[in-house]
Amino acid sequence: MFEKTQDGEMVIFKSSYTFCNEQKVFIIIFDNSAYTQVLCRLARLDNPAKTEKMLYLLNELNAKYKQLKFIIDDEGNVDFSIDYVALDEDFNCQLFLAIVFSIFKNVESEYSKFMRIIWA
């Protein structure tokens, strides 16, 4: 189920997905460009001493999954994003959602690596 909001020409859909028994909120952003973006917050790293280990993991995953971008922000939030490119007339919602949920399964398979660093 998606919750829809609109901000000018931008339409945002919000929903959740369960990664290893934890609900994670994700948003899908549609605007007037050819890019549709999916954003999801995976975790929060509260211990700055572990930042280097987390960055190493994120770099490994960014190299492994070309369609994903993993980041850690200044507050320690660990997020990933997916960019999907299609013009309005070429956009296929079923294909888009199939790709997104397939990618979520890939992220879920890596989720324990994030938690090992955070809980260590």
Description:
The chain is an alpha+beta fold and 120 residues long. The protein is 34% helix and 40% strand. It has helices at residues 51-64, 93-119, and strands at residues 3-7, 10-19, 22-30, 35-44, 68-72, 77-85. It has a six-stranded antiparallel β-sheet with strand order 1-2-3-4-6-5. It starts with a strand and ends with a helix. The mean pLDDT is 93.
Q: What sequence of helices (H) and strands (E) makes up the elements?
A: EEEEHEEH
- Helical proportion, percent range: 25-40%
Name of the CATH architecture: 2-Layer Sandwich
Termini Cα gap: 35 Å
What's the SSE blueprint?
Elements: E1 3-7, E2 10-19, E3 22-30, E4 35-44, H1 51-64, E5 68-72, E6 77-85, H2 93-119
Antiparallel strand pairs: 1-2, 2-3, 3-4, 4-6, 5-6
Task: Give a summary of the structure in a few sentences.
This protein has 120 residues and is an alpha+beta fold. 34% of the residues lie in helices and 40% in strands.
Name a few traits of the molecule:
single chain; 120 residues; alpha+beta; Yope Regulator, Chain: A; 6-stranded antiparallel beta sheet; 2 helices; 6 strands; 34% helix; elongated
